[in-house]
Fold this sequence. Notes:
The complex is a heterodimer of chains A (about 325) and B (about 325). Chain A is α/β, with parallel strands linked by helices and about 325 residues long. Chain A has helices at about 5-10, 50-55, 80-85, 100-110, 115-130, 145-155, 175-190, 205-210, 225-235, 245-255, 280-290, 305-325; strands at about 15-20, 25-35, 40-45, 65-70, 75, 85-90, 165, 195-200, 210-215, 220-225, 235-245, 260-265, 270, 290-300. Chain A has twelve helices and 14 strands. A six-stranded mixed β-sheet of chain A has the order 6-7-8-3-9-10, sandwiched between helices. In chain A, strands 2-1-4-5 form a four-stranded antiparallel β-sheet. In chain A, helix 4 crosses helix 5 (about 115-130). The two termini of chain A are about 35 Å apart. The mean pLDDT of chain A is about 85. Chain B has one domain (about 30-310). Chain B is globular, with a radius of gyration of 25 Å. In chain B, a hairpin with a 5-residue loop joins strand 1 and strand 2 (about 85-90). Chain B is mainly alpha-helical and about 325 residues long. At the A-B interface, helix 3, helix 4, helix 5 and helix 7 of A face helix 2, helix 5 and helix 6 of B.
Amino acid sequence: MGPITANDNQAMIALRHLSHWYGPFQALRDVSFQLAPGRIGLLGPNGAGKSTLLKILLGLLPPSSGGGRVLGHALGEDSAALRRAIGYMPEADALIPGLRGAEYVALAGELYGMPRREAQRRAHEVLTYLELEEARYRRLEEYSTGMKQRLKLAQALVHDPPVLLLDEPTSGLDPAGRDAMLRLLLTLGREHGKAMLLSTHLLGDVERVCDTVLILHQGQLLLQGGVAELCRRRHDRYRLQIQGEATAFCEELRLEGVRILHDNGRGELRVAVPPNWVTRAFFALADNHHVLLRGIQPDDEDLEELFHRVLNEEGRHGRESESGGGA
Amino acid sequence: MGESRSQAAAPELLHYRPWRGAFRPPAASVWPIARVALMSLFQKRMFWIIYVLGLLIFLLFFFGQYLLSWAQTQAGETEVQMGGWGRMNPRHLIQLFRGLLKLDGGAQTYYNFFSYQGYMVMIVLALAGSILIGNDLRFGSLPFYLSKPLARWHYLLGKGLAVAVFINLMTTLPALLLYVQWGLLESWDYFYERFDLLVGILGYGIVLTVTLTLLLLATASWLRRTVPLVMMWTTLFFFCRLLASALVDGLQFSPLWKLIDLWNDVSLIGGLCLNVQWSERRLGYQPPWGDAALVLGGVSLLCLIYLVRRIRAVEIVK
């Protein structure tokens, strides 16, 4: 690991050449990045190394090589102070059978170091805030999946940490529950200044809550950037509905740099346009070829498609470099 | 006015409120862990049934000592009225309590008490191991604890404290009560003259607590579920005892074979703490107490090493 710089100290998370092995299996490969406080999405398919990265950031796992700093604390040193500044919401249920909701959250507070009475009072406050007021005296075994997710968030929030590490917070939730959870996370980030690292494989979650995104794949950092910036990189697409002879029109579109992604043969086209394309150009070209443009709808590549495209491109580059190396 | 104040306060509760307090050191989390573990145990009906049985043994000793003390004051009489049970010679009563039950405030009294209570403790522990620690591994609660600012030592200490509190509630504490009772019934001099018994009771309690706590934490974190745990404890404390007895007492093998009986090892060291006077015959069939101490120390160390390796926030799946 290189020397610690002033930037590393100021960043919320700064990692340098971090790798981790589970025996012969390498879960993280030379991961380096620097993140300012904010709402950060950690994206990747299952097995990408997201949970391992979270556990290293939390000081639960030592990195096999490399290192970094989280909130100014060097990884592997003073883990207790680091964990006190972080609220961790695990992916697994991690509940204690037999306890009631309020007892569970108060216990979390006590384990963070809060005095018992304050932990109890705070537990009730947080549960009320998370709309679990009615359920706080129920046993944990009786909680629904959505309630369990909110309860896990409550135990992460009980000591009012500046940073939240959230491992798949919407896992197992129905659409309404997912929507409520994302709204809650957005409010915590925007209105209450909580920095968060949201690990998920659901790109919609990141798009909705986060302003920065990291994409991990097979333990490697594939991409880092602002969600808005990432969206700018995505291809603008349109769905066109035309009437008339389309062959010449499509040919003209291709000459202008437009890619025809799909043509259903019944007058519906899905096209990707080059940068700086203006919509008006569709009408001009249609007019030139005596085609009636009946409908035009933006059909942009969403984050999910972008993610898969980046993965595919990365895979293709990898294969090309391997075959180049082999030759 | 009160109503309008409560109406104003209601939406305030729905907002997130910051908390700015002082945190306590990680060692302060040991007791909350122990408290929650004990609470889980107290919620089980089986615990209370066996606790009541344990209490009956204590009451037998308690009232036995009381009756003996009372019978000694009646030694001049030829017969005394035993409540509604008829009349009895007080010398026979004294002989019954002193000779058969050894209820005379001596080392053997406390040794017997620890032995009887120990059986109860072991039954409860075998049933409660999965509640105390096995469930944390089974239901993935370990990351809940270890993602907080505490080390695994704090977690182990917390769980160990819960087991220790339970063991001592069943054994050391009632034994101390019996000690105080005898002193109050007999004479205050008893406390000065038999101070060694107080030390012995505490010593036996410590040996029992350390050994059983580490053994329970290790086996429960290994086996996790109640049934396998009960089978393991039955093997350790029942079948090993039978085997050791068959080998040494029956087949006349070396008394060293008795070392495989962990309960016998604990009893030997406990007896040593209380300075129990064994009969020559019984001593002939026992291994040296130093070897028993070595076995207990070795088993405890192995359990500790296993626990330190086992208690991790991250399960590594091959």
